[in-house]
Fold:
Amino acid sequence: MGKEVLYLKIAKIMMEQIQTETLQFGDKLPSLRSAQKLYNVSLNTIKLAYMELESRSLIESRPKFGYYVSHTSQRKLDLPSVTKMKDSKIEGTKEDLIDKVFGTISDSGITQFALAIPGKNFLPLAKMKKSIINVIKSKNDFGTNYEPVQGNHNLRREIAKWSLVMEGKITEDDLVITSGAMNAIYNSLMAVTQPGDSVAIESPAYFGILQAIQLLGLKAVEIPTHPVYGVDLDALKKVLPKLSACCFVTNFNNPMGFQMPNEHKKELVRLITHYNVPLIEDDIYGNLYFGAERPKPCKFYDEAGLVMWVGSVSKTMAPGYRVGWVAPGQFKDRIIRQKLVQTVCSPSLYSDVIADFLEYGRYDHHLRMFRNKVYSNYLQIQRAVTSYFPDNTKISEPKGGFMLWLELDKRICTEDLFDEAFSHKINFAPGRMFSQYDQYRNCMRLNYALEWTDRVESDIEKLGNMIKNNI
Amino acid sequence: MGKEVLYLKIAKIMMEQIQTETLQFGDKLPSLRSAQKLYNVSLNTIKLAYMELESRSLIESRPKFGYYVSHTSQRKLDLPSVTKMKDSKIEGTKEDLIDKVFGTISDSGITQFALAIPGKNFLPLAKMKKSIINVIKSKNDFGTNYEPVQGNHNLRREIAKWSLVMEGKITEDDLVITSGAMNAIYNSLMAVTQPGDSVAIESPAYFGILQAIQLLGLKAVEIPTHPVYGVDLDALKKVLPKLSACCFVTNFNNPMGFQMPNEHKKELVRLITHYNVPLIEDDIYGNLYFGAERPKPCKFYDEAGLVMWVGSVSKTMAPGYRVGWVAPGQFKDRIIRQKLVQTVCSPSLYSDVIADFLEYGRYDHHLRMFRNKVYSNYLQIQRAVTSYFPDNTKISEPKGGFMLWLELDKRICTEDLFDEAFSHKINFAPGRMFSQYDQYRNCMRLNYALEWTDRVESDIEKLGNMIKNNI
Structure:
């Protein structure tokens, strides 16, 4: 097709401009209409050319702002490596290390790079307060009474309403309210496994998932994971028939930040459907995209009700409220029963407060602001790490969310580094937390959803110097 | 000892007066000082005589009001029977029945005899609202931030402060905040068992405990339980070496209402210590005593840290807040880790609201009012059941809390009766929910902590008539 050739030709021209640094990192590309005139082609041809560049991570689109040359175009630091399937001794999760990191959860004197907690300036505090007042005024029992076990009706309706990405496939009846996303993951795992069963996870994996698997007496199968494309589907396919569940963070993965491509998601859903293996999909960061639009979750492609889609307000509104949910497909009744046994129902007031905010708080506006702030911080931390960390540092390329994954010189032990950093009131998540094997010792995860101040800048510099001094 | 003989002599005189109805149900006894003058003996002798009568359930003391001839002195209806140890087929908990009953949890149109939910007029709503406002004003993040995993410091301090019954043996450091008592029981069970282990429970047992045992893949061992003295310690002793845990509701048992005598509690603690078997003690109703003082929990006698003492505000302040706690003794670290994995931390605001109420809400005053209301309702429901139910109805004799346990004619199936009652907008908890065996089919549990209105009176009459029509 001539048309296809044309857009590839234009894309190639632009690629050359980027490679020769005619177009540099951060430069804005011509708008679609300007480019159309410039190259004298149809709007669609330009769109295809830009999509081609975007798919190669050479340019990035920022909603309402246009297209920019991306960092990746001139990466100074490499991507982190992909780990192989392990056959070595399972050493379990590093409970003591995790305890140490979580010990800092409500310590406001520390620069919190460790935990995925958004800074106060990211949260809609004033509107949240307004919602609390609204709710107290409107409820004559002030929330002292029990909620339905499945969860507050208003809240479920609002969550369904705002699940635009699902294009109407989710209704309030499909949702169960949980005590944060972690509780949804824990209960989803419990609903589809028996002690001793195997569950596939990404490697590195979010330590919360590793801990839940251990607590429930399950076996984690760590699947090699690519820092840009996510879990290796070929490797997964080989073990899938032996698994009771998969548990993946498909969008803006924790800790790697990747967005699994749609084609991979479709293939993943096809595979789990074929082998009848439930997928717990932690999509807690899904709304925090840096690209043009909210990526689809696997749940969108799920016809069999095998995907248990997990979300929460902890990353964008109020971590302390512990309001999460799951759309558990065919496992809904089990999840509701488990919830009844574990806690009877969710606390009352918060459900109404979040529902009120979703209804009247201009949620879309808030998310847009939030995304812009997080993206700006991502550029900051990327720049800072590139400046202050050693040149052999490997760095992930998050497409959203608020986590950066770094692979340092082999000689660095980030577990030791944690103590040194902590004495300077800096923390981060050491890599060892993200596997049941003795690996990722030279890795770390950094949260960048904190207010970017001079202190934060200087703390990154301090971290970089500590690393340099330890090589 | 002459002194002992003297007090027994006086007790005997009074017993005769009660038996001959010289002293009738509800009559006030002379005050201790009047009686002392009357019998011309020491104050201590009179105290001993009254204690003797109280231990025989012939009189009851009402705090600040004095001693009254109790209902039991002239029982028209018998006590429920004690079940034998079963060797029959385990049929599991009646999940569908429990779902049906909990389906009514937020239905305000129904007379809620089924669930142990205090009526709105029992709760300190206005003060709770004040506490919410206080907290919102004082917290500049409006509770959006994470709490420490173990639980809010203020709340733990206030709970420790109000644990007067423990005589200073509980500090804030001993407590872990949970999502209601049910979550504390679930996590306590999880902390001390592996799937397949056996756990002793009372029979009949609170269905929440039965469900938690089932969800965790444990085996329930139902111990014969006396309607006045609680679990049969001789029967327990025989199976104790094979158990991983005991889980009992020692004070104002759910569903039977008994208060385990102190001597039994001491012996129970001695036994579990000897065999090194943890005891999960659900003491959620402990503050709702009808007698002279708050009964001691087993935890008070526990030196080894084997008792996991569970409490909550759900029965006295705000069921919907889901604020509970456990003093888990030697299992504290495990419980904290489990909590981290399951939900990261407790929701923030509620902890502060309850802490504020405990600090400034005149908690003692509230509890006194609450107890008086519940006791008055107990007398109402006891009278109503005696009037409207068939004469062969057996009725429990709660010493506190808000549950009445009835054993009806053998021909009655309360599971069928539930549907009939429900069509009249009345519900209750059918006996079958309280065992894993096919038993208690002719039993029911009634919650009497609801506002006693003409409708409630007439609903008890309706229930009585339905039963009569089914014999």
